[in-house]
């Protein structure tokens, strides 16, 4: 009987996700369009695709000049909704760009490879 009541408690538990995404970001390549990206992430669901496009544009103002989804910039990282919070980005006086995540930081020399610093 105990097993049955435990099973009922699990059955009542629900997890709600707005989007069924398994990744937290998308690196834009030259020639990519927002429509193609969204169709790859959520194929065949026009309603969720439209909502995801609006949410991506509002979450990533750095990639859409003037908030225009048709003017997406190449070589940018799109942070996807329901994903990890975008990093805080700062520049140090020594010429490094520092991206601070929840799990630590990455220092990048302008144009160079990054090194990971644990917090």
State the distance separating the first and last CA atoms: 48 Å
Element-by-element helix/strand order? HEHHEEEEE
**Given this structure, which CATH class of the largest domain is correct?**
Alpha Beta
Helix tally? 3
CATH architecture of the largest domain: Roll
Characterize the biggest β-sheet.
4 strands, antiparallel
Q: What is the typical, i.e. mean, pLDDT?
A: 75
Q: Which of globular, elongated, flat, extended, rod-shaped describes the shape?
A: elongated
| Low-pLDDT segments | 1-17, 114-119
Order of adjacent strands in the largest pleated sheet: 3-4-5-6
Secondary-structure content class:
alpha+beta
Over the alpha carbons, how many angstroms does the gyration radius reach? 19 Å
User: Could you give the count of β-strands?
Assistant: 6
Total of domains: 2
Share of helix among residues? 25-40%
Strand proportion: 15-25%
Question: What can you see in these coordinates?
Answer:
It is a single chain. This protein is α+β, with helices and mostly antiparallel strands and 119 residues long. The chain folds into two domains: 20-84, Roll (Membrane-bound Lytic Murein Transglycosylase D, Chain A); 87-119, no CATH class. It has helices spanning 2-12, 34-41, 46-59, and strands at 25-27, 77-79, 88-91, 96-101, 104-109, 114-117. It has a four-stranded antiparallel sheet with strand order 3-4-5-6, with no helix packed on it. The protein has a two-stranded antiparallel ribbon with strand order 1-2. Helix 2 (34-41) crosses helix 3. The longest helix is centred in the middle third of the chain and has 14 residues, at 46-59. The chain starts with a helix and ends with a strand.
